[in-house]
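> agent: user asked for a holo structure of the chain below bound to S-adenosylmethionine. Plan: (1) validate sequence alphabet, (2) canonicalize SMILES, (3) run complex prediction with ligand conditioning, (4) return tokens. Step 1... ok. Step 2... ok. Step 3 dispatched.
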Amino acid sequence: MDHAIQRVLNALTHAYFIRGRAGDRRTVQNRQEKIMRLVPPLLQHAEALLVEILPCRLPADSVVSRYFRRHERLGQADRGFIAEAVYAVLRRRRSLEAYCLGEISPRRLLLAWLGCVQKLNRREFGDVLNAAENQWLAQAKALRLEDFPPALQLDLPDWLYARLLVQLGAEDTEHLALQLNQAAPLDLRVNPLKAERDALLARLRADGIRAVPGDYSPLAMRLADKPALARHPAFLDGSFEVQDEGSQLLGYLVQPRRGEMVADFCAGAGGKTLLLGALMRSQGRLYAFDIAEKRLAKLKPRLARSGLSNVHPVRIESEHDARLKRLAGKFDRVLVDAPCSGLGTLRRNPDLKWRQHESDVAELAVKQASILAAAAKLVCPGGRLVYATCSLLSEENEAVVEAFLVAHPEFSRLSASEILRSQSIPIRGDDEKGGDLRLWPHRHGTDGFFAAVMARQ
Ligand SMILES: C[S@@+](CC[C@H](N)C(=O)[O-])C[C@H]1O[C@@H](n2cnc3c(N)ncnc32)[C@H](O)[C@@H]1O
């Protein structure tokens, strides 16, 4: 193998683990050894992957999966490593482009990340850099990020920075943006029909998986690393699902009870459906509506693992589907996990900040209002309606709910924090304005979520 590439890989591996996995020498050593053993030209793979991702035609995660399917000989550690480099570039794309000094290319973005963010020195780069690149990188390293506008420094598009500034102020926007530029932790949710959290934590630890209970959700477990779990026996037997802790809290806001009629209006692949079904102890009827056949199809194997028998997936044409009319006024609880900009998930999907535009947000808000109004018709008198998004923007959140409440005086807001507290879920911080729940990556360590709980008279 080319020694220069080997040196960069060593340095990269070092930088990667120092940043992400400090404190566990054994893991560092194991994975480092693994990478050394398997080592392909990872930098070239990262470059090739960026060529496909940067035009932003498709979501980055689907491009990454497709790439790895095409390169099936890449091992787990190599994949982790390539994905880490590519995602780092996506997170820091705007400032890395500035470091490119007018000649933006996937290779330069990667080298800028290595040189200017990871601070690899010339010796660590070895002879990977040609003379022109050496010269360019020396100039790039001399740039001071502080001399650029705040939005660039924080790697946000101008329009998004401007909106967050209005909502949060400069200091909080900075804290949020810095957090959004980190990788999200891996959270699991225990399936209470199959396992008990303490026992499952012990089972995972016995397998060398470092896990602790979540801060808020009684079913959450947070992992210290990102092990591959798809073949873990406790996953296969339905004892847990992968689910962000914030997402879990939405299930507790719906608070479904055994025997009730419950609808998950935008069920997708059923992350929240599975939780709602488990909270109902599989008793009563739980409808999982969605317009996307493909997403609902992904719910099927998850349902099979979960042990739930009360879930009815129904593909609808739109929120105005005629079948919904027959169900009007019949549901005790309705969750609307609305399609949204997804900006609360930027730690996982950093490409969204470059793929979403202002005009998308305005369109989404119109769609969200229409879905909420249609879903509300399903709620019975005395029933509960929860509107949620993983957006950070008030346009998709409070504004949608406020307009809905004006047009539907039969609904009134409940306090989300009180509902959670009544279930012994402690939510700290400034999350109670208007009674709605707001979860922020920089305050709660979860993805960004908004949820409003409403009751029908
Ligand atoms: C935020 S995702 C839902 C995620 C899902 N609840 C989960 O926890 O995994 C929004 C979903 O809304 C669906 N959707 C979009 N328009 C819809 C509509 N008019 N009626 C129902 N669902 C819709 C999308 O297909 C997508 O699956």
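> agent: step 4 complete. Summary for user: The two ends are 71 Å apart (CA to CA). Residues 209 and 223 are 7 Å apart (CA to CA).
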